[in-house]
Model the fold of this input.
Amino acid sequence: MSKDAERSTDLALQADPLEPLRTRLKRQQLFLLALAVTCVLALAIAGVTLGMLLSDNKDLAVVEQAELEKEQQLAEQMAFFTSQVEALLARSEELGTGLTDLSEQVATIDVNDQRNVIIRVQRILIRQEQDYRNFLTTLENGLYNFHMMVPHSRGWWEDYKQDLVETAELSKARENYVVNLRNN
Done:
């Protein structure tokens, strides 16, 4: 029996050296499991962050595209309004020339002949000049408001404003000419 006791003691002693290795192996397995979970979490966070960055870039691209479209619309509107202003200025010059021609024709009419008709024509011409200047004032105010809405439009505004002022001065001179005809 003593041999059996020795054998059981030897087996117990032999089992002891494996136990610390098993414990150590379990700890390493738990450590590796914790490390794997940490890696998975880090990858998940990195993926979410990358997704957010990509979506932000898409949002920025959409915003930039919208701004580009707005700039194109403003450029088209600017070109349209510029052409309209040029057409109106050309038309106002034509009207001014026509009015000058009419005023010269009125000046050649004999004042003593049918005075009543001439006075009516003079009143009509004076009223037309006043209406024309009201139109120019309204056009100037509209262009001013438009120029305030469009960035970097100071240069063309000053040019057109000067043209409008000159046209209004010519209109006032024509009105004064017609008034002086009436007084003669």
Summary: The chain has one domain: 2-183. The mean pLDDT is 79. DSSP finds three helices and no strands in the chain.
